[in-house]
Design a protein that fits this description.
The protein is 14% helix and 29% strand. It has 340 residues and is α/β, with parallel strands linked by helices. The chain folds into 2 domains: 3-93, Udp-n-acetylmuramoylalanyl-d-glutamate--2,6- Diaminopimelate Ligase, Chain: A, domain 1 (3-Layer(aba) Sandwich); 99-314, UDP N-Acetylglucosamine Acyltransferase, domain 1 (3 Solenoid). Strand 22 and strand 23 form a beta hairpin. The longest helix is centred in the N-terminal third of the chain and has 14 residues, at 80-93.
Length: 340
């Protein structure tokens, strides 16, 4: 890294308190910081470490009040968390790779943009179009007629099936599969299931991030669509013809059944199950381990429960549920008293 506190402060538009010339070589957690490290504190419960850490530099909010002597140099900013994210982005750029491995297999009729990286044993199929500044790490498979937008990063062992469209500034993590067949079968007269061919594709808009081992199935007809700015955690299943609106975030192990439509700016917790062919309005929040079996039409709803409904009503109901053994015992006592 090798940046001075002043250089970092200039980058983050922050104000220095302490030695502006102190050198930063690496990044660490505040509770583990050593000499030469830079850390950040945005949550007040970690303020105690400001006084004990051995880190050389700490990024803090301008509102942070220091009432004891400290060893570290401070960089005060409007939003420490956002500024630290910006610093991590700069550090990541420093590790950018370029060039095409001799061990990569690239079809002659594919189009490759400028300043790209393609790692060893990656296979680029026929008529693929790859934009500029794209990075495709080793052991990836890119199917025929796939389009990948500028500045997208695809980590090792990702498979993108034929005809899919990947937007610009996407990040796809290891083990993700985009465009595998949707789960479509039809029973015949003898109750044997025959495969329904899935001839659609998957389209991701710009600024999408797809977590490790997440699978997004291609549409039966048309497209499975992931909107601009959507963030998908690890181990998520998105079924065929699902549509996810812009800036929606979904935590790990959630499963979305076929043809459901999720609105913009939604927040979906981990291990949520969403039934097929339903609609979820914009700005809806769904608590972890909830089950959604019917459409949520009210914008901004917050729901919870195995058959999810209003979160406040669910929590009140759960208080009663926990008291059921006590209530039952009382009821039995009353029945005995009145010989019921």
């Amino acid at each position: 890294m090798d940046l001075t506190a002043q250089q970092i402060a200039n980058l983050l538009e922050g104000k220095i308190e302490g030695d502006p010339k102190v050198l930063v070589k690496s990044i660490a957690k505040i509770e583990e910081g050593c000499r030469g490290d830079i850390c950040f504190v945005s949550n007040t419960k970690y303020n105690k470490y400001i006084y004990t850490t051995n880190a050389s530099v700490i990024i803090v909010n301008k509102s942070c009040n220091i009432n004891k002597k400290i060893k570290a140099t401070l960089i005060k900013v409007d939003d420490a968390y956002s500024s630290f994210r910006q610093l991590l982005e700069v550090c990541n750029i420093a590790h950018d790779k370029t060039g095409i491995s001799n061990n990569a297999e690239i079809s002659n009729d594919s189009t490759i943009g400028k300043n790209i990286y393609i790692g060893s044993f990656t296979s680029i199929s026929s008529k693929v179009i790859i934009g500029e500044n794209v990075k495709i790490h080793p052991n990836c498979y890119i199917g025929s007629n796939v389009i990948i937008g500028d500045n997208t990063t695809i980590f090792p062992n990702v498979s993108i099936y034929h005809n899919c469209r990947i937007g610009s500034n996407n990040i796809i993590h290891s083990g993700a599969i985009v465009g595998s067949d949707g789960f479509g079968f039809a029973a015949d007269r003898s109750n044997e299931y025959k495969k329904i061919n899935q001839i659609g594709n998957v389209e991701t808009a710009d600024d999408v991030e797809i977590g490790s081992n997440t699978t997004i199935d291609r549409a039966t007809i048309g497209s499975t669509r992931i909107g601009k700015g959507v963030k998908l955690d690890n181990l998520i299943q998105v079924a065929h013809n699902v549509e996810i609106g812009k800036n929606t975030v979904i935590a790990a192990q959630t499963a979305i059944a076929g043809s459901s439509k999720i609105g913009d700016d939604c927040m979906i917790g981990g291990q949520v199950a969403i039934s097929g062919h339903i609609t979820i309005a914009n700005k809806v929040k769904i608590a972890g381990q909830s089950g959604v079996a019917s459409s949520i039409t009210e914008e901004g709803s917050i729901v919870q429960g195995p058959m999810a409904f209003n979160i406040k009503k669910f929590q009140k109901s759960y208080v009663i549920f926990k008291r059921l053994p006590e209530i039952y015992k009382t009821l039995e006592s009353i029945k005995k008293r009145f010989n019921v």
